[in-house]
Design goal:
Polynucleotide adenylyltransferase/metal dependent phosphohydrolase; nucleotidyltransferase; Hydrophobic Seed Protein; 55% helix; alpha+beta; 472 residues; tRNA processing; Beta Polymerase, domain 2; HDIG_dom; Hypothetical protein af1432; two-stranded parallel sheet; metal-binding; 23 helices
């Protein structure tokens, strides 16, 4: 695949000048992983990229945000996903370029001056034994200075550990621990990218815990300190932060067992959870879902334990502040904050004593996000291992939450997709006055429609008139 792609761009065979495939492109080629980007390095990046663009009738796109490392993208006009990134050597030659990179597994190069090599594995330039570290599944930095020069590389070490399933070499891990406070001077957008990419891996829990142990998470989420200091009793057996890590772990277990948990509805659940960045945002929600507890804890002498009434609402505000520091998109921020604010509510709604009409109103408010919220609540439930929470109780709550998800797909989603029987104009036409009361009536009629209590426009209007008389 790589050979075919490069051959399609370099139709004459080779570049005819010093040119190397570098960085993660070489690593992924060795590992047989799909390549997201093809990174090329040479001494005259701008000139080569322009030449390639002209020869292939492609677009030439300068990407020079970092003057020290300008990148020039050559894009296939017919297929924007087909592109090459060409960068200038970091120094006078390829050897100094590789020495300036982050990890041994990313400090390899493949010479393309004369075309794609017949024996590419044998032609890899590997001055720092990256191939050996790939075989050993080790992430090893090129030195403490390389990490200090760009502290984001600390996070990248854990991101690669999460993506590749590799272990971070001990000296590198020690350097990451020592330099972790330097992350405070790193651009929030760069940090967010690395975090989210790490969270995208199916089994990232062990890496997230190592990030915490290495002190890497605290500069990013200073709220961890009060969470770690906040003890819990009753339903929990860990402090708030340890419990949040437990929920993260349990969440990955739930996500890996959707078929067993939801049966025939598993494909629909999976479709909801795989939309956009739902999974990494769901995992971020697991870490922040109890962020409000340190500020709402009160010891209840009658109950003999600490309670945290209102922690979800307080948590929503704190989560929004924390995510604002990370420069998360408004869409992602709203999703995480919604789950933080609703993670307790959904567990209460799942109880059999709750009226179907009440749940329908919540489904209308949440839409497909109700599925993610229920899944988060299931993980939270599994992590409640305190003296007041028995296995029987956990099983009961899990069953109710699963039934709620099934109800959403079997009944609610279809019902909510149907057009509303009436709107505000209809109410005005039958003589209802403008004002707050109009909205209350419309909301009540909508809830009655969702519950199947009214099925025609005439029935809806009749109910509206009756409700209006009661409000008056």
């Amino acid at each position: 695949m790589l050979k075919q792609k490069l051959t399609s761009w370099f139709k004459s065979g080779g570049a005819g000048a010093p040119l190397y495939l570098v960085g993660g492109s070489v690593r992924d080629f060795v590992l047989g992983r799909p390549m997201k980007d093809i990174d090329l390095a040479c001494p005259n990046a701008r000139e080569l990229a322009k030449k390639l663009a002209k020869a292939n009738n492609a677009a030439f796109v300068p990407m020079e945000k970092d003057p020290a490392a300008p990148c020039f993208r050559v894009v296939n006009r017919s297929d924007p996903t087909d592109f090459l990134d060409v960068v200038r050597f970091r120094g006078p030659d390829i050897h100094t370029d590789l020495a300036d990179r982050d990890f041994t597994i990313n400090a390899m190069a493949l010479d393309l001056e004369n075309g794609f090599p017949q024996d590419p594995m044998g032609a890899i330039l590997d001055p720092f034994n990256g191939l050996d570290d790939i075989r050993k599944q080790i992430i090893r930095s090129l030195g403490r200075k390389n990490l200090k020069d760009d502290p984001l590389r600390i996070l990248r070490a854990f991101r690669f550990a999460s993506q590749l399933g590799f272990e971070i070499e001990e000296k590198t891990l020690a350097d990451c621990r020592e330099l972790a406070p330097q992350l405070e001077r790193t651009a929030a957008e760069r940090i967010t990218h690395e975090l989210i990419t790490a969270f995208e891996a199916e089994n990232s829990y062990s890496v997230v815990r190592k990030m915490w142990k290495a002190g890497v998470l605290l500069p990013i989420f200073p709220d961890i300190a009060p969470m770690e200091a906040c003890q819990q009793d009753g339903f929990h057996h860990h402090n708030v932060w340890e419990h949040s890590l437990d929920v993260y772990e349990a969440l990955e277990g739930v996500l890996g067992g959707l078929d067993a948990l939801f049966g025939e509805y598993a494909p629909q659940v999976r479709e909801c959870l795989e939309a956009g960045r739902t999974v990494p945002m769901l995992k971020l929600s697991a870490l922040l879902h109890d962020i409000g507890k340190p500020y709402t804890g009160r010891y209840d002498e009658a109950k003999g334990r600490t309670t945290f009434f209102g922690h979800a609402k307080k948590g929503e505000a704190l989560a929004r502040k924390a995510l604002g520091r990370l420069r998360l998109t408004n869409k992602d921020m709203d999703f995480v904050c919604l789950l933080v604010s609703e993670h307790r509510h959904v567990e209460q709604l799942a109880q059999p004593v709750v009226k179907h009409k009440t749940r329908m109103a919540w489904y209308r408010k949440m839409g497909d996000f109700s599925v993610a919220c229920a899944v988060l609540a299931m993980a939270d439930n599994l992590s409640k291992q305190g003296r007041m929470c028995t296995e029987t109780e956990r099983s009961r709550r899990e069953k109710h939450l699963m039934e709620m998800v099934r109800e959403y797909f079997a009944e609610a989603k279809g019902a909510l997709a149907r057009p509303l029987l009436i709107n505000g104009n209809d109410l005005l036409e039958i003589g209802l006055p403008k004002g707050p009361g109009l909205g209350k009536v419309l909301k009540a009629v909508t809830a009655a429609q969702d519950a199947g209590q009214v099925k025609t426009k005439e029935q809806a209007l009749a109910l509206a008139k009756n409700l209006h008389r009661q409000i008056k």
